[in-house]
TrEMBL record:
<keyword id="KW-0808">Transferase</keyword>
<protein>
    <recommendedName>
        <fullName>non-specific serine/threonine protein kinase</fullName>
        <ecNumber>2.7.11.1</ecNumber>
    </recommendedName>
</protein>
<dbReference type="Pfam" id="PF03793">
    <property type="entry name" value="PASTA"/>
</dbReference>
<dbReference type="InterPro" id="IPR000719">
    <property type="entry name" value="Prot_kinase_dom"/>
</dbReference>
<keyword id="KW-0547">Nucleotide-binding</keyword>
<feature type="transmembrane region" description="Helical">
    <location>
        <begin position="322"/>
        <end position="344"/>
    </location>
</feature>
<keyword id="KW-0067">ATP-binding</keyword>
<keyword id="KW-1133">Transmembrane helix</keyword>
<dbReference type="InterPro" id="IPR008271">
    <property type="entry name" value="Ser/Thr_kinase_AS"/>
</dbReference>
<keyword id="KW-0812">Transmembrane</keyword>
<dbReference type="GO" id="GO:0016301">
    <property type="term" value="F:kinase activity"/>
</dbReference>
<feature type="domain" description="PASTA">
    <location>
        <begin position="485"/>
        <end position="552"/>
    </location>
</feature>
<dbReference type="InterPro" id="IPR017441">
    <property type="entry name" value="Protein_kinase_ATP_BS"/>
</dbReference>
<keyword id="KW-0418">Kinase</keyword>
<dbReference type="Pfam" id="PF00069">
    <property type="entry name" value="Pkinase"/>
</dbReference>
<keyword id="KW-0472">Membrane</keyword>
<feature type="domain" description="PASTA">
    <location>
        <begin position="351"/>
        <end position="417"/>
    </location>
</feature>
Length: 629
């Protein structure tokens, strides 16, 4: 990619960063003669329609934003299946790098950074764009301490669907809001929570939640309360702690309503560090009234209530007989039904047991365990790949383990086909930071990296434990070897050697001749090395460039020439003036008063090429002479 020109104007110079979806390069805009950053979608994703959509969405959403604290977007394009975005080039470091190098930042400095991040988010939210991936890695700090928020890669207009697919969780789990961790609805308040995490990291030097796996961290965001920042750093003022904890409320309704409120409180915290002005929202609003449930009135009951009582009527004798017969018939039918129920219940009343956990068992082991409890095992015909469960063993069961179930109901199980076979991708020649992406994309795991010296640039993979194209089980770990660059050795001392001999030694040592700087030296013969860079004894790599200062020998001093002037003997005092004429230029080089006894005058002269000298006595021409230099 280095050296490629995109869009006929952006020359790729060097790689400066990258993420899971794209790589970032420094480039030169030939049209405007300035440096830019070019974000390029990783080649393995260009055939994935969903990833391409996300990449295009980034360019569309970010290009609509214009704010001093947001990285500017200059251009977007596609060329030869390369999808790219041209952005403002930021000279500086990420906030993550700053925190790693300095730890917890000073309160005022941290507050200033937080205010600039908040200003960027406020502008985005006003344009109906939610960032959804606010983290210290996506925040650049310029050399003048200006903050630039970048990577609106998963930003999405609020008006469109903002449900995060739990099967495709995006972003960094350490900065997730609880609703993002659950895969639920996300809006501006999700950015507010993530901003709270960043502020927490700014003033404590650490993240609020850590865990061995992303899932464990996500669960902590949902279930656990973070340690109060002042318990970690007692220099944090009360007001700033209140702001951070309100932004990080797990209940969305208790957080700040918008970023503007955070900005107002942050500014107030600089004036009243220990003030108690941060308003906390209650669980239930005091003005909320509990509405009594509407009582349901049955239609028959309503009719009974509203009807007027009827007058008693005298029934004839025949009606009474019919009534008695109806009552007796009803009793007989009730007895018949109850007896039938007892018979049926005695037939169908079956034993209920807890279903055991047979996941991971072999088919034979599971069948024996279930049959011992009276269950019947039913194997689902379709088997599934599973890297953690051996072939022929149980992957899933229904009903789930420890569920109460009648023994007459079958327990359905799904068997494993074992790990899926996948081809090992080519790692050799790739940069080490691409290895995890390549392996994860095919279901393999990154193994142990090692390093050794080689002629290849530092960081390039030079060997992999399993050859490219080999079919292996899904989940297999692939080890690899990274180049540490050319082998190191101590620089030879070339001072005092003839430069021609040195050039031959450089070829043998696999070093590169750099600049030869000639310099006059009265003590060192011509062609001999006076100085070298790097110095002798310095640890260097093969292919290193070596510069030399080489003696030109003693500097040749020019031969002095003199102009002899005979003065007139008949003048006691006279003014002598001498002019040097070079081409069309005449220069006064001597003027003084003399007596006849000073004759002859001996005047030192200099010049280039053929030079004429004219002598005047008392402003009258006296003599001239021509010299060659």
């Amino acid at each position: 990619m280095i050296g490629k020109v995109l869009g006929g104007r952006y020359e790729i110079l060097e790689k400066i960063g990258g993420g899971g979806m794209a790589l970032v390069y420094k480039a030169k805009c030939r049209l405007l003669n300035r440096f830019v950053a070019v974000k390029i979608l990783r080649s393995e994703f260009t055939g994935d329609e969903e990833f391409v959509k996300k990449f295009k969405r980034e360019s569309q959403s970010a290009a609509s934003l214009s704010h001093p604290n947001i990285v500017g977007i200059y251009d977007v394009g596609m060329e030869d299946d390369i999808y790219y975005i041209v952005m403002e080039y930021i000279k500086g470091q990420t906030l993550k790098e700053l925190i790693k190098s300095k730890g917890a930042l000073g309160v005022e400095y941290a507050t200033n950074i937080a205010l600039q991040i908040a200003a960027a988010l406020e502008h985005a939210h006003m344009n109906h764009i939610v960032h959804r991936d606010i983290k210290s890695h996506n925040i650049m700090i310029k050399d003048d301490n200006t903050v630039k928020v970048t990577d609106f890669g998963i930003a999405r207009a609020v008006s469109s669907c903002t449900i995060t697919n739990t099967g495709n969780i995006i972003g960094s789990v350490h900065y997730f809001s609880p609703e993002q961790a659950r895969g639920g609805y996300t809006d501006e308040k999700s950015d507010i929570y993530s901003l709270g995490v960043v502020m927490y990291e700014l003033v404590t030097g650490r993240l609020p939640f850590e865990g061995e796996t992303p899932i464990s961290v996500a669960l902590k965001h949902i279930q656990e309360e973070a340690v109060n920042p002042r318990e970690i750093n007692n220099r944090i003022p009360k007001s700033l702690e209140d702001i951070i904890m309100k932004a990080m409320e797990k209940d969305v309704s208790k957080r700040y309503s918008n970023v503007g409120e955070i900005i107002a409180d942050l500014k107030q915290s600089l004036i009243m560090p220990n003030g108690d002005f941060v308003k906390k929202k209650k669980d239930v609003d005091e003005n909320t009234k509990v509405i009594e449930p509407i009582k349901h009135i049955d239609v028959e009951e309503k009719l009974t209530v509203e009807s007027k009582p009827e007058e008693k009527k005298i029934q004839p004798r025949s009606s009474k007989k019919i009534t008695v017969i109806a009552i007796l018939s009803g009793l007989f039918l009730a007895l018949l039904i109850f007896g039938g129920y007892l018979i049926v219940n005695s037939i169908f009343n079956v034993k209920i047991e807890n279903v055991p956990n047979v996941i991971g068992d072999s088919e034979e082991e599971a069948r024996k365990e279930l049959e011992a409890l009276g269950f019947v095992m039913e194997v689902v015909e379709e088997r599934v790949f599973n890297k953690d469960v051996p072939e022929g063993h149980i992957v899933r069961q229904d009903p789930k383990p420890e569920t109460s179930n009648k023994v007459t109901n079958p327990v359905r199980v799904v068997l494993s086909k074992g790990p899926k076979k996948v081809p090992v991708p080519a790692l050799v020649g790739k940069n080490y930071d691409e290895v995890d992406i390549l392996l994860e994309s095919v279901g393999l795991e990154e193994g142990e990296p090692s390093q050794e010296y080689s002629p290849y640039p530092s960081g390039i993979v030079i060997r992999q434990s399993i050859l490219e194209g080999t079919e292996v089980d899904e989940g297999t770990k692939i080890d690899y070897v990274i180049s540490g660059g050319p082998e190191k050795f101590f620089m030879t001392n070339f001072i005092g050697s003839n430069i021609e001999d040195v050039k031959k030694q450089l070829i043998v040592l696999d070093l590169i001749l750099g600049n030869e700087t000639p310099e006059f030296n009265d003590d060192v013969p011509k062609g001999v090395v006076i100085n070298q860079t790097p110095k002798a004894g310095t640890e260097v790599s093969k292919k290193s460039v070596v510069d030399f200062v080489v003696s030109k020998g003693p500097e040749e001093k020019p031969i002095k020439k003199y102009l002899n002037v005979e003065l007139p003997k008949n003048l006691d005092r006279m003014k002598v003036t001498i002019f040097k004429i070079e081409g069309d230029k005449s220069t006064l080089i001597y003027e003084n008063t003399h007596s006849a006894s000073d004759s002859p005058l001996r005047i030192e002269i200099s010049g280039k090429g053929e030079v004429k000298f004219e002598v005047y006595i008392n402003n009258s021409f006296h003599d001239s002479a021509v010299y060659n230099f």
